[in-house]
Amino acid sequence: MPSREYMVENCPVCGSRISATVPTAGIEYSGEEYHFESAKCKEFFEENPDEYT
């Protein structure tokens, strides 16, 4: 398994590929950790997380 240092994931809101290690606005929801491309994406997620999970 690659180290978290090199992991890349997609923003659940806009789909942009982001590094999971960049300290972007991240939150935990239903036991999962989510990272976002921007603070605005995090706002959209927090308003309606079920739309993006």
Description:
The structure is a single chain. The chain is α+β, with helices and mostly antiparallel strands and 53 residues long. The chain is built from two helices and four strands. Strands 1-2 form a two-stranded antiparallel sheet. Strands 3-4 form a two-stranded antiparallel ribbon. A hairpin with a 6-residue loop joins strand 1 and strand 2 (17-19). The longest helix is centred in the last third of the chain and has 9 residues, at 39-47. The protein is globular, with a radius of gyration of 11 Å. The mean pLDDT is 82.
Total number of beta strands: 4
* Structural Rg: 11 Å
Q: Note the total helix count.
A: 2
Helix percent band? 10-25%
Structural class: alpha+beta
**Average pLDDT metric:** 82
In short:
This protein is of the alpha+beta class and 53 residues long.
Task: List descriptors.
53 residues, alpha+beta, 25% helix, 26% strand
Helix/strand layout:
Elements: E1 8-10, E2 17-19, E3 26-29, E4 32-35, H1 39-47, H2 49-52
Antiparallel strand pairs: 1-2, 3-4
